[in-house]
Design a protein that fits this description.
The complex is a heterodimer of chains A (214) and B (528). With 214 residues, chain A is mainly α. Helices cover 44% and strands 0% of the residues of chain A. Chain B is mainly alpha-helical and 528 residues long. In chain B, strand 6 and strand 7 form a beta hairpin. Chain B starts with a helix and ends with a helix. The chains are: A mainly alpha (214), B mainly alpha (528). At the A-B interface, helix 1 and helix 5 of A face helix 1, helix 2, helix 4, helix 6 and helix 7 of B. Chain B: InterPro entries: POLR3C_WHD, RNA_pol_III_RPC82-rel_HTH, RNA_pol_III_Rpc82_C, RPC3, WH-like_DNA-bd_sf, WH_DNA-bd_sf. Chain B: This is DNA-directed RNA polymerase III subunit RPC3. Chain B: DNA-dependent RNA polymerase catalyzes the transcription of DNA into RNA using the four ribonucleoside triphosphates as substrates. Specific core component of RNA polymerase III which synthesizes small RNAs, such as 5S rRNA and tRNAs.
């Protein structure tokens, strides 16, 4: 654009004054680096509003935050899978147990059906129906009495139970005569069936404890 | 849905519910309505966890679901309801000032749980109140008192029913969206029936019910959930802000008159209407509280002052009944927003810039030369300040060219302030500010977490020692485990965190004003 006019030297077509600076004035220097990340502010910010209501709301806010953190709604995933047993685990689990006291089960009547946790059904159930039943009938007569006693003990400690219907049905059925088939837990798959019955409720309690921790 | 706002939502979810919920929430915010399979594939969490997270989000009224045309159930998240979580303490405080402690606790319970049954909420609040009362030595209160407070809250529409689920072949597929207004606030008749544990119930159910309490109570209102009606609280806060503004501008009596106008029109106008229905002067006189000692003449004087005031809050719309007055919400919010933006300009650029800004607001379009003349500021300075504001987008330019070739020498450059644009920009800045404040607070806490935990443990040990009746020596020993420089550090961290918390609360006030203004502006343009 400069110098389009014929014959003249460096002249421009518009009034240079209008640009905001006259000829010969010092222009700001070239910019050699990006502007600073925290530029200095000319005016210091004024202090925050003070008042009773703000103090009260602050206290409310902090309480609310603590309540939300303790509530069963905060889903904390157990990211670190236990690779080795650590000494500090004992104290971490203790603390964890103290804080989350309440449990929350959503009311599935207002939620879509697909959100319900599915019951774990093992297909093995249908594979061997006959053989186990016979074996169990033989052993039942030996330990029916001890089972009844243990059943009573178990009834009182049922508040500690968390988890799916499987566990509860499990316990009930084991506590009773246990002629029906038991829905198998992950842990029990490997064990022999005779051993399973002897362990019976002790093992069930262990299962519950582990589920508590998880 | 701006980027910054999404980031704030993510932080809010993370703070309240944990990072897993935040991940799912932000995914739904970005991708829109999606079925569960899609969420599972992107979020890489286990199916059980995602289901639980969705349950939590639905419980807190942030996610809704409906069946789409292809037959899956799609989940939609509402960004607004996540942002409203910042205002929860405001709601609790309002409930306390209006209805008292019981109402405060009721609203707090409902906000913390999302949705609850009426019976549940009443029992738990009664329990909490009684605990506090007994601790301070006063007699315990009846549950019926709390129930009355709850009924009051429902009648004034602060608490509403959750929409009931749509059933199709006995499966929940969505929620009713066509509920009547009145239905939302109908109070069910609850009578607690004590049912003894039924022997005939199948073993599994019996076991489950035993987990709860020893005696089972089945309330009549099973399935009717209640939640807080945020819009109503917004209305209340908005009215409070306007009344405060009049109070500061004119007089306490004027603010009382305005408050009466609001109270009278509450029941008649739709909640988010552009302007309230007209209220006659006679009604106002009738409804004013007696302590003010305002008679007919004084009321008329005040009303004329308020209507003639430059803030334009109240308009006289008729002469029947001694004068009909109505409050135009759009104008009110416009004035309040202007005030907010003006204070931002003043704090950022100085009072001379504020003069130029106000000038532009008044005169709408001005050239640079005219600005220098009107503002009585030297040319160089005016130019500097103006261009500073222009670079930050508070002021905009329109070019009007004299000739067809748009040559710069033959073009008028006119400066103007577009309040709507500036309001949006300031709102974005507020979001950024609140995001920074939250982030800094979390960073401070995580940085000094070990130290703060140590102090907590020491306090716990001291408390237990005091309870067990230990000597002072032991207490001193424990206290000395925290060295003086550590104490200083802890004090400083606590002060910083408090300041950041406080600033979040106050930024949130500004966000409320700006968001309400933009809402009314949209309503206004839609009506035109």
């Amino acid at each position: 654009m400069a110098g389009r006019g014929r014959g003249r030297g460096r002249s421009v077509s518009f009034n240079v004054e209008a640009l905001g600076f006259g000829r010969g004035e010092a222009l700001p220097g070239p910019i050699q680096q990006p502007p600073p990340l925290f530029p200095t502010v000319e005016f210091h910010p004024i202090p925050l509003g003070q008042g009773d209501e703000y103090d009260y709301m602050l206290a409310l806010k902090q309480e609310f935050r603590v309540m939300m953190r303790k509530s069963p709604y905060s889903v904390t995933t157990n990211e670190k899978r236990k690779d080795i047993v650590r000494y500090s685990d004992k104290y971490r689990w203790q603390q964890g147990n103290v804080e989350t006291v309440e449990e929350w089960t959503p009311d599935y009547s207002i939620l879509p059906a697909e959100l319900k946790p599915k019951k774990v059904r093992r297909t093995k159930r249908s594979v061997k129906p006959n053989i186990p039943v016979k074996k169990r009938k033989v052993e039942d007569k030996d330990i029916t009495k001890t089972l009844e006693e243990l059943e009573k003990k178990e009834e009182t400690s049922k508040e500690d139970v968390e988890g799916e219907d499987d566990d509860e049905e499990d316990a009930e059925k084991k506590g009773e005569d246990g002629e029906e088939e038991i829905e198998e837990e992950d842990f029990e798959e490997e064990e022999a069936e005779e051993v399973r019955f002897e362990l019976s409720l002790e093992h069930v309690e262990n299962v519950f404890l582990v589920k508590n921790i998880l | 849905m701006s980027q910054v706002r999404n980031r704030v939502c993510r932080l809010i979810l993370q703070e309240n519910f944990g990072s897993a919920v935040a991940k799912v929430g932000i995914f739904l915010l970005e991708k829109g309505p999606s079925p569960i399979r899609y969420i599972l594939s992107e979020c890489h969490d286990s199916s059980e966890e995602v289901k639980k997270i969705l349950c939590v989000l639905i419980q807190h009224n942030m996610v809704t679901f409906e069946k789409n045309k292809k037959g899956f159930i799609e989940y939609t998240i509402d960004g607004e309801s996540i942002m409203y979580r910042l205002r929860f303490i405001r709601y609790i405080y309002c409930a306390k000032t209006l209805y008292g402690d019981a109402a405060e606790l009721l609203i707090e319970e409902l906000l913390q749980r999302g949705k609850m049954l009426m019976s549940e909420v009443i029992t738990s609040v009664t329990g909490r109140l009684n605990e506090a009362l007994e601790a301070s030595g006063k007699p315990a209160i009846q549950e019926s008192l709390v129930k009355d407070k709850f009924t009051n809250l429902v009648k004034s529409h602060f608490v509403q029913r959750c929409p009931s689920p749509l059933l199709k072949e006995n499966r929940v597929v969505g929620t009713e969206t066509t509920e009547n207004e009145e239905d939302l606030f109908k109070i069910p008749d609850i009578r607690k029936r004590k049912k003894s544990i039924n022997e005939d119930m199948p073993a599994a159910k019996r076991h489950k019910s035993e987990e709860g309490s020893s005696t089972q109570e089945k309330a009549d209102d099973d399935g009717i959930y209640w939640r807080v009606n945020c819009q109503r609280f917004h209305q209340l806060i908005r009215d409070q802000i306007i009344v405060e503004a009049i109070n500061k501008k004119i007089d306490m009596r004027a603010s009382e008159i305005l408050r009466t106008i609001f109270r009278l029109s509450e029941t008649r106008t739709a909640p988010m209407a552009l302007s309230t229905n007209a209220v006659s002067a006679a009604e106002i006189l009738h409804a004013l509280p007696k302590e003010l000692g305002v008679d007919r003449k004084l009321l008329d004087t005040y009303l004329s002052i308020i209507t003639d005031d430059s803030t334009d809050f109240v308009m006289k719309v008729g002469d029947s009944g001694g004068g009909m007055f109505s409050v135009n919400m759009y104008k009110c919010m416009l004035q309040l927003t202007k005030a907010h933006i003006e204070s931002v300009v003043q704090e950022r650029f100085g009072s001379k810039s504020l003069r130029i800004f106000r000038l532009l607001l008044l005169k709408k379009h001005l050239e640079q030369k005219q600005i220098e003349d009107f503002a009585m500021i030297s040319a160089k300075e005016a130019k500097e300040l103006l261009y500073m504001m222009f670079s930050q987008n508070f002021v905009s330019i329109t070019e009007i060219s004299k000739t067809a070739d748009h040559a710069p020498s033959r073009t008028y450059y006119i400066f103007t302030v577009d309040i709507h644009q500036v309001a949006r920009m300031v709102l974005e800045r507020c979001y950024k500010a609140i995001f920074n404040a939250m982030l800094k607070r979390i960073a401070e806490l995580t940085e000094h977490r070990r130290l703060l935990e140590k102090q907590e443990r020491c306090d716990a040990i001291i408390a237990s020692l005091v309870q067990g009746g230990a000597e002072d020596e032991q207490k001193e020993e424990i206290e000395q485990t925290i060295t003086p420089p550590e104490r200083e550090l802890i004090k400083r961290v606590k002060r910083t965190v408090q300041m950041l918390d406080q600033s979040e609360i106050q930024i949130e006030e500004a966000i409320f004003v700006l968001e309400t203004f933009l809402f009314y502006k949209r309503l206004n343009t839609a009506q035109k």
